[in-house]
Amino acid sequence: MLHSKSFVKKTRGGKVTKVVREHYLRDDIYCGASICKVCDPSVARLSASASTILILDTNVVLNQIDLLENPAIDDVVLLSIVLEEVKNKNLSVYNRVRSICSNSLRKFFVFSNEHHKDTYVKEMDGESKNDRNDRAIRVATQWYQTHLGGATRVLLLTNDRENKRKANEEGISAETVETYVKSLGRPDLLDLLVQNASGDVGMEDVEDLRPSKRKILYTEHKPMSEITSGLHRGIYHQGKLRVNRYNPFEAYVGSESIGDEIIIYGRTNMNRAFDGDIVAVELLPQDQWHEEKSLSIADEEDEEEEGVHLVPGSADDAPRTTGQLQGSSGETAPVSFRPSGRVVGIIKRNWHSYCGSLEPMPKPAGSGGIAHALFVSKDRRIPKIRIQTRQLENLLDKRIVVAVDSWDRLSRYPSGHYIRTIGEIGDRDTETEVVLIENDINSRPFSSQVLACLPPLPWSVSPEDLTNPIRQDLRHLRVFSVDPPGCKDIDDALHCTSLPNGNFEVGVHIADVTNFVQPGTPLDEEATQRGTSVYLVERRIDMLPKPLTEDICSLRADVERLAFSVIWEMTPEAEIISTRYTKSVIKSCAAMSYIEAQAKMDDSRLMDPLTTDLRNMNTLAKIMRLRRIERGAITLASAEVKFQIDTETHDPLDIGMYQIREANQMVEEFMLAANVSVSEKILKHFPLCSLLRRHPIPTREMLQPLLLTAAAVGLNLDVSSSKALADSLDRAVGDDPYFNKLIRILATRCMTQAVYFCSGDLSPPEYHHYGLATPIYTHFTSPIRRYADVIVHRLLAASLGIYKLPVIFQDRPQLTSIADNLNYRHRNAQMASRASVELHTLIYFRKRPTDTEARIVKIRSNGFIVFLPKFGIEGPVYLTQRGENGGGEWFVDEQQQKIKKMDGSLSYSVLQAVRIHLEVVEPQPNRPKLHLSLL
Amino acid sequence: MEYVSPEGLRLDGRRPMEMRQIRGEIGAVAKADGSAVFEMGNTKVIAAVYGPREVQNRSQQMNDQALVRCEYSMANFSTGDRMRKPKGDRRSTEISLVIRQTMEACIMTHLMPRSQIDIFVQVLQADGGTRSACINAATLALADAGIPMRDLVTSCSSGYLNSTALLDLNYVEDSAGGPDVTVGFLPKLDKVTLLQMDAKLPLDIFENVMQLAIEGCKAVANYIRELLLENTKQLEYRRGV
C-alpha cells in the first residue's frame, strides 16, 4: 500500500533552491460513492440515488462559492488539487468550502487525487502548472467514470473553454456551470451565479457595452511588481483603508511609513477600494491637499443626506470631524493640513457579503427576464453594487445579501450577485437579523458539542465542592445582589459586615464561570469566538448557553452558588487594609433591583440587617467615589435610553432616558474596586501575559469639537489632564439645569473607547485608564457575559496557585489576537445594540409623531444638528432646502457657533433649546426614516 | 498551516500513524569492522564502527569496561543549500553525545575492558529525523561488527501537530515548531533508553505521542532483525555452511 515517489518540487524565495520531497501514492483512497462495490462504504458521502456526480474545476469553486453553499447543489466531489489551488488563491473561499465539506447534511466528498496511485499525474515537459492541474482534474474525472462504470453520470463543471474542449475530446462529459444550472430548471439559482468578467461565459450587461458609453472612470491599478518596488522606494504607502462611516467619500489609510493617516477624498481617488482593503497609496502634491473637499462632493451625483441616529457614545461612534464645519465659504476653520493621497493599487481585497436592499425602481413589465438593479448596502461605507436578477419583483421590498465579484474600471459601481433574502424591509425580525449580520454577530443556537460541556441539570452545589480545600464556605455571610430589574444573568453579589474593631469586611462575589468553562473545550472555544453577550432591545444573544447564564452561574437568591470572591477589610474611611481572593460557595439572601435597593436605603423606618449593610456600603461607596473623582476620574454622561416593550407584540410602548440612582453608583464603585484589586494581583504575578484594559488619553485634536462648542458659550475648559478636565466639567454650570449634562455628553463623545490588551505588548505607563484615572484596570466582574472576565478569572486562579495557567497564556501572539478579537466583538456588540435601539426608535415614532424639546449641538452651513435628550437621538434640521446649500439667506458665524439669517431677524446658536417636530416619513416606498423639523 | 488534511493525509500522503519507507544495508564501508547505511524516507545516514580495539589515549582507558566514542557529522551536501559548518558545532556535539549514551547503554561494555569502540555516523541526506536514523544505523553497524549487545536499540521520532500525533516527522513537519519526541527503545527488554523533547506538551498527550514513537521503534526493530537474519543467511551461504 506504500509506494514512494520522490520528485523535484519547486523553487522558492529569492534564492533558487531545489526542494525534494517525498510523495507517497496510495491504494487505500476511496471514491466516496455509496453505490461503489469496491470501496469502503463507511467513508461514503455521496448519496446512493445521485443521478449525477459533479466534479468541479478550481475556478468554479473560487467564483461560484455562493452557488455551492446553496443546498440545491449536492453530490459533489472536490479534488484535493482543486482545494489546494483554492487555498493558495483565496483562503476565505477555502474555509467556506471546507465548512461545506464538514457539514454532514451536504454530500460533498473530498477525493485526495494527488495521493491516489491511479490519478496522480506527473508534470510533463513544457507543461505549465495550470495545465498540469487541469489535466489532473480530467484524469480524476475519467477515473471516476471508469471506476463507477456508468452507474451514474460523472460531470465535470468547468468554465474554462480549453479545459472543456479537452475533456470532451477525452470522452469526459463536461459542461459550464451556467448550462448545468439552467438544466436544473431553478431560476433562483441562476442569480447566485457570478458573471464571469473574463468573458468566458457570454453574458454581459448590454447597456455598458456600447463603445460611446464606455468611459474610463478609474485609473488602472498598478501591477503588483510596481507596487512592491514603489513601496520599497517610499513612493507608495501601504495601509488598511477605512472609509468614514458618515461620509463614504472620505477614507483614511493608516500608514506606518509616514506615521500619519492619509486622507483620501472622493471615489476617484479611492479608485475602487473598499473599506478594509489593504491598499497602496500615492501622496498627492501638497498644494492639492486642501481643495479636495469641494471636488469630491461635486463629482458624486448621489450625495446622501444624513439621517437621524442615536447619540454617539464615544469618539469611535461619532462622525469624524475634520473639516466638518467648513462648508460653503472658504473660511478659517482650523483644518489641519493632513496629507491626502490616492489609491494606486489594491494589495488585498476585503470583499465579503453585504446586507441591504435594492434601489427602488419601476417593476419590470414581464417577469422572469434578466434585470439589472443597483443594490444599496445598509453599511454606508460600501458603494452601490450592480447586480443581475431574474426575480426583481420579489426582491424589491426585501432585505437581501449580496456579494461583490469585480469592479471594472469602466463602470461606476462594482458588480456582484445576489446570495439570499433575509426578509421584508421594515419588518422587525428582518431588520434585527440585518443588524446581527452587519455586526458579524453569531446568533445561531449553540451546537450539540458545546451543550455537551454543560453539567447535567438540575445542578446544585455538590459535597465535593464544599469539601474542596480551594473553596471557602461563605454561606453564612449575608450576601445580596443588586441589578437592573428583570436581570436573569446575575454575575455579581456583595456583602458587608462590620468587624469588632470598627472596620468593615466588604466582599464582592463573582459567579465562578471558569469552574464550568474549562479551557480547550468546545464551550470555551465558542465563548472565545463570541467574546461577549449582545443586548438588543427585545432580545439577548448569550455568550454562554442559557442553563449556565440563567441558572448554574447566576447568583440568584436563596440558592447555593459557586463564586470567586474578593474580600477587603476596610476602615470606615474606606481605606483598604487588606485584600484576599478566594473561590467560595455563597448563598445570596436577596436579589434586588436598583429601585428596590434604593427604596430600602431611603426608607428610614427600615432597620433590618440587610438595609444596614446597604447603608454602610453606600457610605463607603460615596467616600470611594469622592476619592476617585479627586484623583481625576471623569464623570461621563451618556444619553442611554430605555424602552418599555409590549410583552405580546414586542413593540416599544414607551421610551425614556435611563435613570441612574445612588444604588447603581454604589454597585459600580465596588465593581471598579474589585477590578482594580484583581488587575494589581494578576499583573504582579504575570507581568507579561495579563489581560488588562486601558483607556488612552484623548489628544487635543480629539477634544477640539468640545473646546469649540464650549468657547462659543463662553466656557473655558482645561483639558491638560483628566483631573483638570473633570474639575472644569464640574464648574460648567449654567442657568440651565441640563447644561452640565449636555457638556458631559459632548465630552464623552470626544473620547475613544477603552480597549483590552495583553500586558506584554505595552509598557506600564501605557496601561493607564484615563476615564477612571487608575494606572491599571481590568474586567473581572461579569464573566457570564464577557469573555475577558473569564480569562482574568483564570489568571487570578493561577496567581493564587489554585489551577495551572492554561497553555494559551504562554503564547503571547495568540493572547494578543484574543484581546483584539474581544475588542472587535465588544465594539460590534455595542454597534448592534445601538442599531437595535435606532430601529426601535423608528418603530416607536411610526405611530406617534411628537413635538419635543431639543438642543442644538452643532451648526452646519444649511442648518444644525439637534440632540433630543428625551429620546437620546440626534439628527439634522435643515433651514434651507437641500441643494441650495445655505446660499444667501443664512450665514454661519464660525467663532460664535451661530447661524444667522441675513437680515438678522433670526439666529440660532449652539446649545440653544428649540422645539422640534418628530415624525416618520417615507420619501421612497419601504424606506421609512425619522424626520426632524423646526416648529 | 495544515499538516494533516481533514481527509487524514499528511503533506506527503502518509497517514498520521505511518512511517516513511525504511531501508537498511549492511556493509557499506569495507575497511571498518562493521558498517551500515540506513534510510528513513529521504533521510540517509552511514555508520561505521571500529573496535573493540586498543585505547588510543591511555589516560581514558577504563579497567572495568570498554570506552565507547561516537562522532556525528553532517555531509556538506546533506542539505539542499550547501553550508560549510565548522566541525564540532554545538548541535553535532549534542547529537554525538546522545548517540554515544544510547549505544553505551546497550553494548555489554563490561565484556571488553581496556578497549575502545568508535562509532562514526554521517548524514548523507537530511530530511528530518536524523537522530533516529543515526541510532538505527549505528545499531546495524554494531551488530555487523559483532559487538555484544543486550538488545538491538532502535529509535523513531514522533510529533504533535494539528492536534494529531504524527509518527516519524519529515523535515517540513519537523520545522513546524511543534514538539518532536525522539525515543530510543530496547524492544526485547521493553525499555526506553533515550527520550528527548524540546517543547512543552500536556502530560496526557505526551504519553500518547511517546507511545506512538515506541510503536515506531518496534516496527524499526522488526525490520532490522529481519535484515540481520537475512545478512547472516547470506554469510552462511557464502561460507558454504
From TrEMBL, chain A:
Keyword Hydrolase: yes
Protein name: Exosome complex exonuclease RRP44 homolog A
GO cellular component: cytoplasmic exosome (RNase complex); nuclear exosome (RNase complex)
Region ranges (Disordered): 297-337
Recorded name of the encoding gene: LOC107424330
UniProt keyword Nuclease, yes or no: yes
Family per record: Belongs to the RNR ribonuclease family.
Biased composition (Polar residues): 321-331
Residues of the RNB domain: 471-802
Superkingdom of source: Eukaryota
InterPro entries from the UniProt entry: Dis3_CSD2 (IPR041505), NA-bd_OB-fold (IPR012340), PIN-like_dom_sf (IPR029060), PIN_dom (IPR002716), RNase_II/R (IPR001900), RNase_II/R_CS (IPR022966), RNR_Ribonuclease (IPR050180), Rrp44_CSD1 (IPR033771)
The species this protein was found in: Ziziphus jujuba (Chinese jujube)
Subcellular location as annotated: Nucleus
Domain (PIN): residue spans on this chain: 52-165
Record's keyword terms, sorted: Exonuclease, Exosome, Hydrolase, Nuclease, Nucleus, RNA-binding, rRNA processing
Pfam family membership, one: Rrp44_CSD1
GO molecular function: 3'-5'-RNA exonuclease activity; endonuclease activity; RNA binding
Biological processes annotated in GO: nuclear mRNA surveillance of mRNA 3'-end processing; rRNA catabolic process; rRNA processing
CDD domains named among the record's database cross-references: PIN_Rrp44-like (cd09862)
UniProtKB/TrEMBL annotation, chain B:
Main location as per UniProt: cytoplasm
InterPro entries: ExoRNase_PH_dom1, ExoRNase_PH_dom2, ExoRNase_PH_dom2_sf, PNPase/RNase_PH_dom_sf, Ribosomal_Su5_D2-typ_SF, RNase_PH
One MF term in the entry's GO annotations: RNA binding
UniProt GO cellular component terms: cytoplasmic exosome (RNase complex); nuclear exosome (RNase complex); nucleolus
GO biological process: nuclear mRNA surveillance; poly(A)-dependent snoRNA 3'-end processing; rRNA catabolic process; U4 snRNA 3'-end processing
Domain Exoribonuclease phosphorolytic residues, every copy: 18-148, 151-216
Keywords: Cytoplasm, Exosome
Similarity remark: Belongs to the RNase PH family.
Protein name: Exosome complex component RRP41 homolog
Gene of this entry: LOC107423721
